[in-house]
Amino acid sequence: MAKIKVHYFSPTGGTLQVVRLMAEALDRMLHVGVEYHSYTLPTGREVLPVFDAGDIVLWATPVYAGRIPNKTLDYVRAAIHANGNPSIALVTFGNRAYDNALAELVGLMKEGGMKPVGAAAMVTRHAFSDTLGAGRPSAEDIAALDHFAAQVAERLSTFNAQLLTVSVPGEAHPEKYYTPLKVGNAPAGFLEAKPACNSALCTRCGKCLDVCPMGSIGEKDGMPTFDGICIKCQACRRRCPTGAIAFTDPEYLSHVAMIERTFAAPKRAEFYVAGTTHSR
Ligand SMILES: Cc1cc2nc3c(=O)[nH]c(=O)nc-3n(C[C@H](O)[C@H](O)[C@H](O)COP(=O)(O)O)c2cc1C
Ligand code: SF4
Ligand code: SF4
N or C end: fewer C-beta atoms under 10 angstroms in the chain? Predict the structure, then answer.
């Protein structure tokens, strides 16, 4: 049976919160049922999805450095394949900018044989910060998302293969990622930064051990060890109930201070629907 098939990457939960709101709003109108698939953990990327005729694909990803997170890109490119299925692209961003991420996702959908009919960029809490994007999505964001879902449902009710696909701002094939800056605007070099665990605060509860999208957290005497690639997603830090996990790299901390100062003013969510002009 055709369904709304939701695929999402969400290390710290903001993207899941938003995509759930969108899927539920759509299903209140379409009554087809929703199926969720997380590709956040490595196990969620082991098998490629199969989309049945009539499935509506809702794909959601956070924005990392202005694009689709680069360590997920190969999987996303391989997984976004369908036979003319209608799709909706959703990106979440932490109140700096979504740059080329939405165009990249919509571009992959078109190249993979989907028909993107709607696209949205929603502000969520920035994983790096407790102030940037705090409290988002707001009641106003959720009302706007409901309105978007109604517009998309209306497009889907008259869906056919000749339907126009959505246009969004940005480049579908961006070459570069956003370069993070420090306070004072010099580039912040924290590519190699990793979290550390404070043994005095760690209660050995094990909650952080299974949350890493890169499978990079090991364990020694009940405490986490950070062994492999770190994409700075903050899942482990935010999962820890005692605040034992922190990033102390000065370049990283200076970048966080810079974005908190520069991007404090709330950005608006943006919505795009095939065959209409830009709405917010
Ligand atoms: C490594 C990294 C890079 C990010 N880059 C951006 C960015 O370029 N622009 C922006 O506004 N937010 C950026 N963010 C914030 C995330 O897009 C935002 O926190 C998102 O909600 C995280 O999704 P999640 O809660 O599902 O993990 C970044 C977050 C991380 C972890
Ligand atoms: S180790 Fe790095 S990649 Fe893994 S959960 Fe922690 S912040 Fe994310
Ligand atoms: S979640 Fe925090 S307290 Fe629990 S094991 Fe991990 S670092 Fe230690």
Answer: N
